[in-house]
Amino acid sequence: MADVVEQDLSVDDGEARERREPHRKCAVTREVLPKQQLIRFVADPMGHIVPDLKARLPGRGVWVTAQKEHVESAEKRKVFGRLLKQQVTVEPGLAERVELLLRERTLGAAALANKAGVIVMGFSKVEAAIADGSVALLIAASDGAQDSLRKLMQVVKRTYGESDSFAVFRIFESAELDLAFGRTNVIHAALMRSGKSGDGGFLANAERLQQYIGARVDETGSHEEI
Fold first, then answer.
1. Which fold has domain 98-225?
2. Do residues 220 and 150 lie in contact, with contact meaning Cβ atoms separated by under 8 Å?
3. Do the beta carbons of residue 199 and residue 115 sit within 8 Å?
4. Burial letters for 188-222: b for 16+ Cβ neighbours within 10 Å, e otherwise?
5. pLDDT at site 9
6. How far apart are CA 198 and CA 27, in angstroms?
7. What is residue 164's predicted lDDT score, i.e. its pLDDT?
8. Residue with the larger pLDDT of the pair 138 and 215
9. Of these four, 36, 157, 169, 184, which has the most CB atoms within 10 Å of its CB?
10. Average pLDDT rounded to a whole number, residues 41-67
11. Considering the chain, what is the average pLDDT of its residues?
12. Rounded to 5 degrees, what angle do the CA atoms 93, 144, 206 make?
């Protein structure tokens, strides 16, 4: 019986009722996680494996932990065809395609958050918002100066104490942030706490992308693996 439950949690039969299950088991690690921490994959009518980031596509689905290494492992171990019980084609670069889709979703959500008026930009405004304790997510351009980010992290530490639990997002280059926010030379920005419920899904998508890439920002503003 335990084996049946395990199988049911790593693959669904496509019914909406099953897709609403709050937890799923990774087909690679066999770890049970909230489904927000996994990615669903389905086979299209031609048998090609495609990521279903919204978990809404019809057909049987396989769940994999939302980390690049596990998607790569699922491809190498041929888990998709085995669990979907059909011949499938996995195009080269599936893990990179997932990352690209996650980046696109996060940039789109960032633009929505900005339109909703819950994003502040510029070093001084971001610094003041952090000091006020009103920042839900600190955003820094990946190609921005390390020294300025380090200064902001010092404000984080003074305001929040230990900075390890403070959310910092440093994945997009300045040019990408420019496009999302409709400004030029965006190096520092912040999502305000008051805007978390109306941020267009930006915070959730940013956290998912960061989990997928497998990196966090330490108290000096540098990336480190997680």
1. 60s Ribosomal Protein L30; Chain: A; (3.30.1330)
2. yes
3. no
4. bbbbbeebeeebbbbbebbbbbbbbbeebbeeebe
5. 81
6. 33
7. 59
8. 138
9. 169
10. 96
11. 89
12. 50
2-92 has CATH 3.30.1230.10 classification: yes
**Count of other CB atoms within 10 angstroms of residue 184:** 9
Phi and psi of 143, rounded to 5°? -105, 15
Question: Contact, 11 vs 62, CB < 8 A?
Answer: yes
Residue 224: what are its φ and ψ, rounded to 5°? -140, 150
Query: Is pLDDT of 215 > 90?
Result: no
Task: Tell me if 10 sits within 8 A of 41, measured CB to CB.
Answer: no
Residue 216 is predicted with a pLDDT of 62
Q: Tell me the CB-side half-sphere exposure of residue 145, using CA atoms within 13 A.
A: 6
**How many Cβ atoms sit within 10 Å of the Cβ of residue 88?**
20
pLDDT at 147 over 60: yes
Which part of the chain has CATH 3.30.1230.10? 2-92
Would you say residue 99 has pLDDT above 70?
yes
